[in-house]
Amino acid sequence: MPWSNPSQISKVLEIVLRENPYKILDLGCGMGIYGFLCRIFLEQIDLVIIDNIESAILKFNSKSYDMVLFLDVIEHFDKDTGMWILKEAFRVGRQVIVTTPKEFFAQVVEENPLENHRSHWSKQDFMTFGKVEFFDHPESLIALISG
Q1: Pairing with 51, which of 34, 74, 85, 131 sits 20 to 30 Å away (CA)?
Q2: Cβ burial, residue 81 (10 Å; 0-12/13-18/19+)
Q3: H helices within 20-78, ranges in order?
Q4: Cα separation of 85 and 79, whole Å?
């Protein structure tokens, strides 16, 4: 299921519009819905979408993007790999929006093992990044990490 929790879309879009980034990197873009919405609602945008995260993230220069979207992706990696990718996302972007389910639930997709859930994340996991703003949502942990 290469898409996010639909109930969080308006909150994520609200954050993006508030921050008004120009250069956006969408890591693990899935169906590309967030990039599509950014193109609709932001007046000017330079958007790059990446679905093959681990090999691509190292190619980007430090702070080369205003914002990195890492939405409902981190739980598909084990904890060490997810933290490494998040650190790289923060290296590449001035801000990172990360979303993940508040509660762990098993998700196994035999046709696409990349969709399997491998880890659970809490607010504490993101606190090492400095300035972190959390947003209210009943099902998703939504965080904006800023430098």
Answers
A1: 131
A2: middle
A3: 33-41, 53-56
A4: 10
